[in-house]
Every structure is written in structure tokens, then in C-alpha cells.
Design goal:
By secondary structure, the protein is mostly beta strands. It is built from no helices and eight strands. The strands form two sheets. It has a five-stranded antiparallel sheet, with no helix packed on it. Strands 5-4-7 form a three-stranded antiparallel sheet, with no helix packed on it. It is globular and about 30 Å long.
């Protein structure tokens, strides 16, 4: 199954992940990760993040968000591309 993003390793396990504005909303599924993640937004494009038991909130360029391991979350498509850097802890 293809992923709804492009990804490249930057250094030391940090990853640059890019979501295209044309990705279908159905591809942006609820999921959980095996490790804690710190996500820094490079370009927000009007995208949102939704954590389990919470309402969606805007992702903001320059801001960093912590996503605890094994917690359900998803991104919600915006009006242009989304670029983030992911650090796993």
C-alpha cells in the first residue's frame, strides 16, 4: 500500500515528510505510532492535527507538537502542501 506522503531521512533518524495538497482525505487515516514523536511544521498549508479524544486544531509553521506513542491521531488536509520534520524519541 502506498503512503499519502513523500519522506526522506535528514540526519540521525530525523525525517522530512511532505504531504501533497491533492492527497485524498480517505488516505489520511487515524493511526498510532510505536514511539513518541516530536513534529515540527515547516509549511502548514492550512492543515490540521487531531489527537484522540480531541477536536482538530491548526498546524502552524514554526511550531512543534508532541505526539505520545500509541495514541490515535490523524492529519486533516489543507489548501496547499504540508511539510513537517519528525523526530522520534
Amino acid at each position: 500500500m502506498s503512503r499519502p506522503y513523500r519522506e526522506q531521512i535528514i540526519d540521525g533518524g530525523r525525517r522530512l515528510r511532505e504531504f501533497n495538497r491533492d492527497v485524498r482525505s480517505e488516505e489520511l487515516e487515524w493511526h498510532m505510532d510505536r514511539s513518541d514523536r516530536r513534529v515540527t511544521v515547516i509549511e502548514d498549508g492550512g492543515w490540521q492535527l487531531q489527537l484522540e479524544s480531541g477536536l482538530p486544531f491548526p498546524l502552524t509553521s514554526g511550531e512543534t507538537y508532541d505526539i505520545p506513542r500509541e495514541s490515535w491521531h490523524r492529519v486533516i488536509r489543507g489548501h496547499s502542501d504540508l511539510k513537517i520534520v519528525i523526530d522520534e524519541t
